Amino acid sequence: MEEKKIVVYGMGCKKCEQLHANALEAAHQIGVPTRVEYITDVAIVASAGIMSTPALAIDGKVVSSGSVLAPEAIAELIEKALDGGNPSGGACSCGGRC
After folding, report:
1. How many degrees, rounded to 5, is the angle at CA 53 between CA 11 and CA 77?
2. CB atoms closer than 10 angstroms to residue 1
3. Model pTM greater than 0.90?
4. Which residues make beta-bridge pairs with 4?
5. Taking Cα atoms as reference points, which of 30, 27, 84 lies closest to residue 61?
6. In angstroms, rounded to a whole number, what is the distance separating the alpha carbons of residues 21 and 83?
7. Under a CB-based contact definition with an 8 Å cutoff, are residues 58 and 78 in contact?
8. Contact 57, 39 (CB under 8 A)
9. Is the confidence at residue 95, as pLDDT, over 50?
10. Distance of alpha carbon 47 from alpha carbon 49, whole angstroms
């Protein structure tokens, strides 16, 4: 099974740290190879097009921005990505075009 890559973008605030913890928990829950990164470098966050933190990306696609998702919600997004679907479910700022 292909490893999923999750990236949490944030500035190190409490909400960003909570999203990172929730992403780690979700990765543990689903039981598939998952790598979780936490990026706080402002230049990298900006270059990813993130306008509001915390943000979450799965396999390079931003699926959430500006909110702290629960571990169960993150696990659902990962499972959608495993099925080959758009993990954002059309809910991201691109209107589902990502």
Report:
1. 120
2. 7
3. no
4. 34
5. 84
6. 24
7. yes
8. no
9. no
10. 5
